[in-house]
Amino acid sequence: MKWKWKDWKWNWFYNWNTFYKINALVLVLVVFMLGLSFMGYYYYRQAKVAMNDVYSSSLISVKLINEANANVRMIRSVNIELLSAPLDTSKKQNLLIQTTVLNGFIKESLDNYTPLAKEPFEVAKLAQVRDALQKYSDEWQKVVSLMDSGDKEEAYLYFFNNATKDLDEINTLLPELVDFSTQKAKSTIVRENLNFVRAEKFLFGFPLVAAILAVIIGALVARAIAKPLQIMLANVQGLASGNLRVTKIKTTSKDEAGQLAQAFNLMTDSLSDLVKEVSVSSADVAASAHQLLNITEQSSSASGQIGGAIAEVASGTEKQASAVNETVAAIEQINANIQMIAEAGQRVTAFTTKTTITTENGQKALTQAVEQMANISQGTQVVKGAINSLADGSEQIADIAHLISGINEQTNLLALNAAIEAARAGEQGRGFSVVAEEVRKLAEKAKVATGQITSLVVVNRDNINHAIAAMDAEEVHVNNGIKVVNTAGLGLNEILNMVNEVSEQVGGIASSIQQMAGGSQQIVSGIQHIGAVSQVTADQANTVSAAIDKFTASIDQINVSCQSLTDLAKDLQTGVSTFRI
């Protein structure tokens, strides 16, 4: 198995700890969401400012100009009635007062319109209207003076020849201002429609790009976490089945997964070396035990020969010297064999000590692997909490989109009411009706955009749910890895127990060898004593016979110990054979 990323440009990312990788993904998602929220607010703010501008600069302007225009027409009608119809004094006075009041209404409308007239065209036309209105007021005062003098016909002619042209000029200028305000409102609506199209493209394209980037980054993070764990899980499973020939994990990353892979490689090497040493040592123990068994058989045969020699000594002292020499030679051979057995026992003791130390080191490596797997599991829990927080944020965005949708519906209803009121106003409300219809269309488009935002939030919520499911799956993999490593730890414990048993058996063999060495020395001393006191050969023959019996018992005990050592060596070889090196 090979774990190596080909694209070196991403090595800096793969060297990050798992905690930072997952936080980077969450940070990217947060940045995308903040960018989307900011742009939505920016275009919403632009639309709001444009609506306020249309209402304040255009609709109110048209309303004030139309009021002034209507009052101009009404003042003309009042003036004509005052000059042409026969009236009594009270009626005449009422019409004069009405003329003054209407003139005041016109000035009030123009005064209210003045702060809204910001364009040079509007300022110039407004100045012309004021000049014409002032001229009309001056001419009307002259007409009133003629009427007061009783020359009504002259007043009528003077009115039509002088005052009416000022009213006509006003009636011409005011519609021009209305047309200008209407065109300005239309240009504002066209501009905002273009802004809305741009906003629509952005609000559709930006979440799509954000979703694609989030999926790509999420896949990179998931692969950076899951890939090494999958490879490690396969190797650990092979190791648990006894396969020590698993390929080393090749990694260049410096995150937790890379550190765990390096620790796993060290553990595999240590365990492989231990099994090799145990296998070789068990074979040596078996060979030594077999050799020791042969030696005990030879010793048993020699003890039989010594017994025959003692019998011959009892029958005649003439053969005593020859028997003593044979016995000494046999005892020396036994002593040499005992020394060989002692050396083999020392080698076995040293090997068992080294095996115990190596097994304990393997247990420590497994403990470190379990701790690293636990750290990965904790990191997975942190990621799950962060993704759940992100899901809560998506729900809040959905609530805000629902609130905006309600505002759009209310705006649509207000636009419909405005259109109804404009229809009731007749010809004068036609321009306002057009604006109300445009407002309603904008509200409908905003409602559609809000629905798209809601759909995107739902898609984002599904993606977050998929991420949560993926993290749950990774958590299962991590737990499985912990179980496999624990299983390997149990296997090492069994090996350690077997090694300890072998050590105890070797200690028993060493003790038996020491006893056998002491017995051989006693036999040598006895044989030498037989040579020195040949005159009491008959009495000492019984003593030698007793010593031979003790020696035979020791040989039998050594034989039993050798058989036990052979069985233990076979058991150790059977246990080691389960591992494939």
TrEMBL record:
It holds the Pfam family HAMP. SMART domains: HAMP, MA. GO terms for biological process: chemotaxis; signal transduction. InterPro entries: Chemotax_Me-accpt_rcpt, HAMP_dom, HlyB_4HB_MCP, MCPsignal_dom. Residues 295-531 form the Methyl-accepting transducer domain. Residues 223-276 form the HAMP domain. One of its GO terms (molecular function) is transmembrane signaling receptor activity. The chain crosses the membrane at residues 20-44, 202-226. Gene3D superfamilies: 6.10.340.10, Methyl-accepting chemotaxis protein. One of its GO terms (cellular component) is membrane. Belongs to the methyl-accepting chemotaxis (MCP) protein family. This is Methyl-accepting chemotaxis protein.
